[in-house]
Amino acid sequence: MPEPTSMRMLAGVVLASIFLGAFIGLYSSFRSGGSEANFKRDAEELATTIGSMSSLDSGTQWFFNVIVPVGCQLRFEGKCVVAAVNGSHSYDTGVNVAGPVFGGGSWRLTLRRTENGVEISG
């Protein structure tokens, strides 16, 4: 039969493993929520940037860096920048905007002013 000290040590290791697993799960969840909040802020800033290009000459190009979290999308519909994070969050640009859908990853977007609005490429 094991000594009482060994049993206490085993119980301590089991409890430490449980608490460590719970902490890692909570931290991962918190970190994921933070990156999604940053993505929504970036999408709103992108919409503002695109809107400010409306007064510029055709052919003007700007660049914008954005990180799209895994499982999320950045897309453009009419005059809106749409951040798809647990539903759709639309941000008005005030100008027609067109571009492809960007999935999870780090993107350097090229914003190009055209006669009809702003075109996005990555």
Description:
- With 122 residues, the chain is of the alpha+beta class.
- It has one domain (36-121).
- The protein contains 1 helix and 7 strands; from the N terminus they run H-E-E-E-E-E-E-E.
- The protein has one helix at residues 4-52; strands at 61-68, 73-77, 80-84, 88-92, 97-98, 105-114, 117-121.
- The strands form 2 sheets. The protein has a 4-stranded mixed sheet with strand order 1-6-7-5, covered by helices on one side. Strands 2-3-4 form a 3-stranded antiparallel sheet.
- A hairpin with a 3-residue loop joins strand 3 (80-84) and strand 4 (88-92).
- 15% of the residues are buried.
Break the fold down into its secondary structure elements and pairings.
Blueprint lengths: L3 H49 L8 E8 L4 E5 L2 E5 L3 E5 L4 E2 L6 E10 L2 E5 L1
Parallel strand pairs: 5-7
Antiparallel strand pairs: 1-6, 2-3, 3-4, 6-7
Gist?
Helices cover 40% and strands 33% of the residues. With 122 residues, it is an alpha+beta fold. The radius of gyration is 23 Å and the shape is rod-shaped.
